[in-house]
Amino acid sequence: MTAKSAAAAARATVYGYPRQGQGRELKKAIEGYWKGRVDADALRATATELRRTNWRQLAEAGIHEVPTGDFSYYDHVLDTSVMVGAIPERHRAAVEADALDGYFAMARGTQDAAPLEMTKWFDTNYHYLVPELGPDTVFTADSTQQVTALVQALALGLTARPVLVGPVTYLLLAKPAPGVAADFDPLTLLDRLLPVYAQVLADLRTAGAEWVQLDEPALVQDRTPAELNAAARAYRDLGGRTDRPKLLVASYFDRLGDALPVLAKAPVEGLALDFTEAAAANLDALAAVGGLPGKRLVAGVVNGRNIWANDLEKSLATLGTLLGLADRVDVAASCSLLHVPLDATAERDIEPQILRWLAFARQKTAEIVTLAKGLGGGTDTIAAELAANRADLASRAGSALTHDPAVRARTAAVTATDGRRSQPYPERAAAQRAHLRLPLLPTTTIGSFPQTTELRTARADLRAGRIDSAGYEERIRAEIGEVISFQEKTGLDVLVHGEAERNDMVQYFAEQLTGYLATQHGWVQSYGTRYVRPPILAGDISRPEAMTVRWTTYAQSLTAKPVKGMLTGPVTMLAWSFVRDDQPLADTARQVALALRDEVNDLEAAGTSVIQVDEPALRETLPLRACDHPEYLAWATEAFRLTTAGVRPDTQIHTHMCYAEFGDIVQAIDDLDADVISLEAARSHMQVARELAGHGYPREAGPGVYDIHSPRVPGADEAAALLRRGLEAIPAERLWVNPDCGLKTRAWPETRASLENLVTAARTVRTELSAS
Asked: Contact 736/727 with Cβ under 8 angstroms?
């Protein structure tokens, strides 16, 4: 096909779409099902209608080929485990008794069976359920969910493409099941898994699929020759089968690298590549392999992970370069639109001109359609759209919001000394022990306590004008008093004020910093039914006034025990926002760090002796390629130290991280120079404690003994057993006892019982240590 005919054949598509619905109908239906207010038929009906709505919106916008199989009740990797029959033995009876309840049991756990481990989906803030596999795993095909969705889309008269997690990525994301040797490699199960995928592909072809997309984002990471050979074998096998649809192998989030020639040679009909941040590398690699003659190329030229309006002319130039490198070039976002909110036009509190800088899922589909039209018909067919886009981009570039000379001057004046504590850790530790007088194995929580219905109602009433600020603040004071009283009665050693006044650990601060925009309806799925509204980091950042001192000081006035000041760290403020793309991330991180440094210093001046600066996103934001790690970790750890280094030696700095793989950033954790770190460890059975010990981590640490992402209440014996395992790696004088994460999403009954058990466990192990 010539470049001209390839352009004329260009079509618009997406890899996935937000699942929740305009009013988060899916969240409400699922949580209603869990509470018994919604039955299974009603839940399924809601899901069916949401899928139909999504497909119709996409088709009406001009998307030529809609995705199916991207919709999920909880997580698409968990759906894949169901599809291939990889059900953990502890959940098998529940799944066989009721497939839907068993599915949720794998995700959330039950009182008798722990859930699957949860961690971040590559370098995003989306969480997936980690498959558990072993040498005895038997795979069986169950394509019911995938076929049902496809048939529903085809019945609407739509061209539909099922989207599946690819077999290589699925195995590379998996971990050895409990009881299986830690060095077991799930990729050794590939030959056992491929026939199951082949059966699913055959079922989808029978159901009417012309194309099926197999997502292989794991191939954009550094891969060994053995792993690349496995990918070649997988697609030689699947591509060589005759009873299948056409195969589109998709990669995203970064450059494909050494995997590109492997997939280019594979007997598949199409490849999908990321041409946003990885544009230059993927263009060069594609040219180096001689293009994709006879194949379909889906070009992800619209950023599927951020919310800024696309530079249409730049994307058209990229698409024009791709013409002639493939038999057909189609236009798409760089990844699933799952990672952005649904519709920017729902926002009423953002200035109309600034709103034109933004593109949520619906706006991105319009951009994709416009680009496909321009690629196929020439720029004259989209002249009006190009002119409007140029004006919007110029408006943003020239806005006073994006340039504050005072902020830039302060950032430029930062020196290396600003990021160093005044004394080394051993001297600080001695000063802190003398000042705080904590017991062995001190107990604490991560920060937040349950956000009750009453709190959410009070916040809604304040926004709606049904109560005034005085009435709202009285409710917050009462909640803080209850939280402090409970912690004292329970016997916790370092208390928190519970964060009753905070809507979200990033949004709360963003709303008080200059340079941020907040949305009212910009919901994005984090995991399961947990949705967040990431703020938009649009301009230069500064702190007009103190943000947390008032409520922390009030909480401290209610108790003689230390109350932690709670802040969100600079890297997480970036990672869990939609960050500006018009300057280096390192520059933005320094701006945020300086604003937070002012808050840390004000907390200390107000008498706060323990200050926690959470950085759960430090690992999540790690670039996917190892060669890019040093530059990122240098500015990320510098930003944390810049935030925290201005305090006295006897002020104890904590940090917290959760739900990520920490083994490959232990040196960076060390480089933060925090006095205490708390980390998720319950689901991973204290793996992180062993990783810290292996590194020789010299400071205090609290690997979690209570998995807060499950409603189950761990017994005191269970928590004590985890604590003893932690002691195998971390000396008692440096070990803290805490949950995995904040308690915001938990209910009070389970929170009370779990924390009481946690304190009991700590006391039990203290007694054992004193007797030994």
From this structure: no
Structure tokens of 419?
């990021």
Maximum C-alpha span of the chain: 83
Reported as half-sphere exposure (CB side, CA atoms, 13 A), residue 560 has a value of 4
- In a 13 Å sphere around the CA of 10, the CA atoms on its Cβ side amount to 28
Cα–Cα distance between 324 and 533 in angstroms, integer? Answer: 41
Query: What are the DSSP calls for 653-691, one per residue?
Result: EEEEE-SS--GGGHHHHHHT--SEEEE--TTTTTHHHHH
Pairwise CA distance, residues 171 & 231, whole Å: 11
Confidence of residue 658 (pLDDT cuts 50, 70, 90): confident
Q: Extract the tokens encoding 494.
A: 């370092």
d(CA 747, CA 450): 6
C-alpha torsion sign, points 128, 588, 697, 756 = negative
Q: Which helix (H) or strand (E) holds 162?
A: strand 160-165
Which stretch of DSSP H or E encloses residue 531? Answer: strand 530-532
What gap in Å lies between CA 365 and CA 347, rounded to an integer?
18
Range list of H helices, 713-747: 716-727
What phi, psi does 652 have (nearest 5°)? -90, 120
Here the tokens at position 150 are 């496809």
Q: What is the pLDDT of residues 291-323, one digit of tens each?
A: 999 999 999 999 999 999 999 999 999 999 999
- Taking CA 109 as the corner, what is the angle to CA 105 and CA 113, rounded to the nearest 5 degrees? 100
pLDDT of 610 above 90: yes
List beta partners, residue 444.
494
Provide the strand spans (E) within 569-664: 610-614, 652-657
- Displacement of CA 261 from its chain's centroid (Å): 30
- Read off the tokens for 631: 């530059």
Rounded Cα–Cα distance for residues 762 and 772 (Å): 15
* Cα–Cα nearest to 259, from 232, 297, 238: 232
Q: Taking the mean position of all CA atoms in its chain, how far away is CA 453?
A: 25
* AA letter at 322: L
Separation between Cα atoms, residue 103 and residue 44, nearest integer Å: 14
Nearest CA to 661 out of 107, 89, 174 is that of 174
Q: Is 339 a catalytic residue?
A: no
User: CA 305, CA 129: separation in Å to the nearest integer?
Assistant: 20
Whole-number Å distance between alpha carbons of 281 and 259: 13
Ramachandran angles phi, psi of 441, nearest 5°: 55, 60
Instruction: List the one residue out of 101, 181, 203 whose CA is nearest residue 135.
Output: 181
Under the banding of pLDDT at 50, 70 and 90, the label for residue 93 is very high
The answer to whether the beta carbons of residues 301 and 276 sit under 8 Å apart is: yes
pTM (whole model) above 0.85: yes
Catalytic option among 91, 339, 654, 709: 709
Query: How is 183-224 classified by DSSP, letter by letter?
Result: T--GGGGHHHHHHHHHHHHHHHHHHT-SEEEEE-GGGGS---
Element (H, E) at 455: helix 453-464
Both tokens of 337, joined, read 């639109």
- Smallest CA-to-CA distance from 109 within 140, 78, 135 is with 78
If you count them, how many residues does the chain have? 772
Could you please report the per-residue DSSP string of 116-139?
Answer: PPEEESTTSS-EEEPPEE-TT---
CA–CA gap between residue 440 and residue 437 (Å, rounded):
10
Exposed, middle or buried: residue 106 (CB in 10 Å: 0-12, 13-18, 19+)?
buried
**Residue matched to tokens 């402090």:** 484
The answer to whether the CB of 619 falls within 8 A of the CB of 550 is no
For residue 684, the model assigns a pLDDT of: 78
